[in-house]
Amino acid sequence: MERLPGDAHPRPVWLWSSALSLSAARIDLLWQAFLRRFDLEHTFRLWKQTLGWTAPKIRSPEAADRWTWLIIAAYTQLRLARHLVEDLRRPWERPALPGRLTPARVRRGFRNIRPATSCPARAPKPGKPGPGRPPGSHNQRRAPRYDLGKVNKRPKSLAAKRDLGG
After folding, report:
1. 3-state secondary structure at position 42
2. Where do the structural domains in the chain lie, given as residue ranges?
3. How far is 103 from 107, CA to CA, in rounded Å?
4. Contacts 24+ apart (CB under 8 A), 82-86
5. Does the first or last residue of the chain, that is N or C, have fewer Cβ atoms within 10 Å of its Cβ?
């Protein structure tokens, strides 16, 4: 890194490997793998915080797989729309070239390109909501619950904890 924002100077980044007597090419490969890992961590952070990957309370593994594929599709749309979006930056952010916008910045400007794109579906028809469940009635079936694995049993009260010697 040649230059950092402001007057900051780049600090060395120490990477550790247990392999002995590595060649220069192998060390370069390890450094590139570290950079790739950094990119992946930020991608997962965007999926969780901005796109809501972990927000819904999903009850089955199949639904979790479907939700993950929807998030991947949304992320792909953001990556592909980089050239179509204007940079709607916050006051503290620096301008970026259209092809270099981050997915979070593309998401901010995505609403401005939506009216220009065609929509294959017709306009929604107005309608009244369905009957649903009558007020005051309870579910007929309980939602399925899935085992999370081992759970340690804990005393229910402080007195029980004291009796156990804890």
Report:
1. helix
2. 38-89+96-119
3. 6
4. 82/106, 84/113, 85/109, 85/110, 85/112, 85/113, 86/112
5. N
